[in-house]
Prior knowledge:
This protein is α/β, with parallel strands linked by helices and 273 residues long. Helix content is 37%, strand content 21%.
Amino acid sequence: MAQFSLPQNSKILKGKDYQDKSDSNNLKQVNEYRWDQSNKEKTKIDTLEVNMNKCRPKRLDVLVKINNKRVVVTGAASGIGKALCEEFHASGADSIICVDMNLSGAEETAKSVHGLAVGADVSKEKDVINVIEKANEFAGGIDIFCSNAGIGGKPGFFEADTSDWEMIWGVNVQSHIHAAKHVLPQMIEQGEGYLMNTSSAAGLLTQLGAAGYAVTKAAAVSFSEWIKITYGNKGIGVSCLCPQAVRTAMTANGPGVAGVDGMIEADVVAKDV
Length: 273
């Protein structure tokens, strides 16, 4: 009689249970099959409870993709960045690194999502390298990097001098380049990873009265497209977030023509990422 031995990873073990923290009685259990080839971990099934009263059509798919992921978000002290951290936490992310020049604001966000706060000026390459190092130390790696920090810069064209252009280019463009340059190698090595770069509708159309903002946001879109085309076949996913007028500190003095149709709330933007 022939005898066969099943492969080591053919036996499926029970994984973690992620329970919904709301008082809803309309819950659905979602099972996620997991196997980490890199550390020869045995296959397992994690179970998630989903509040169906708040579950949008694409929500289940998002939950599975975000669950247990290690996430970095820049510009996390307020606005879209803070809302992204909260949404990732609600979707079951394993760890969230909250990055901002405003360290106290980043710490407040990190406390609410049980994450780690890191102070950084993302226009500076050394600061972005430090963020990645801190994230690796804290979580053991990075699965999703949200390069979200941005500034409005000086309005107009003739009014802006070289230093104004250097500042807005550093934050709105170089920050994405620094992040990709230093996080992509480890993502490619692990076989997958995701970059989410925040641009703006101004990057697809333009921004009347703000040359610096329009040009840098268009550059962010172009860079995101280039990364996807160049590294998509290596397991790298890329999204470019391009909302119109969002109610954040940047638009506190008015959204200008971008807000003619109204303002979008930051948490609404985060839910659609």
